[in-house]
Amino acid sequence: MKIIGLAGSIGSGKSTAAAYLRSLHFIVFDSENAAKSAALEKGSPCLQKAAELFGPESILPDGTLNRPWVADKIFYDHSLLLRFEAIMQQQVRDDLLHFLETQKADGTSAVFLDLPLMIELGWHKLCDSVWLIAVPDEIRIRRAIARDRQLGKEIVMRRNNTQLPVSEQRKYADAVIDNSGPFANTKAQIDEQLRKLQLIK
């Protein structure tokens, strides 16, 4: 089974690339949705650890995570943010390893991993190939702010600053896909890489 990682900074369009791969019937592990599910699932170990970290106010009456309250707390306390991220990352790692075992057992020919901080957290070491979805910084930031106006420029910039510069990410990439133009161009580049891996004709 081939494991292909999708790397790229905030606003680069990894999720859009992943959606295109799904449209081609490839299986994509989406860590963001996996982490959200883990954080929101009642009684999950992840939720219990979050409650221990933040206190009872972090849990809503229905037993789910009070995400706006938690977001406000970690925005002003970087050490708290790091501890919370460690909880989430461990949950994602557990979910990812289970996902890979299941897909391998099912005889899946290839899977794609859509993981934030792919290189920074060492996820790329699990991959046979890493595709970097690359976009100039100015375009990335503008897209990220437009995509989720609730975040605001300050939070987008803070998240951006936790990620390696694209110039550094390129050193780990087996393929660089330019997503700065029309998505038709991006799709053509993805198709080319799929053909190189003999995943499509």
Give a structural overview.
- The structure is a single chain.
- With 201 residues, this protein is of the alpha/beta class.
- It contains nine helices and five strands, in the order βαβααααββαααβα.
- The chain has a five-stranded parallel β-sheet, with helices on both faces.
- α2 (31-40) packs across α5, α3 runs antiparallel to α5 (78-105) and α4 (67-76) crosses α5.
- The model has no long low-confidence stretch (mean pLDDT 87).
- One of its GO terms (biological process) is coenzyme A biosynthetic process.
- It catalyses: 3'-dephospho-CoA + ATP = ADP + CoA + H(+).
Task: Give a brief outline of the structure.
This protein has helices at residues 14-23, 31-40, 45-54, 67-76, 78-105, 137-147, 152-161, 166-169, 183-196, and strands at residues 2-7, 27-30, 110-114, 129-134, 175-178. The protein has 201 residues and is of the alpha/beta class.
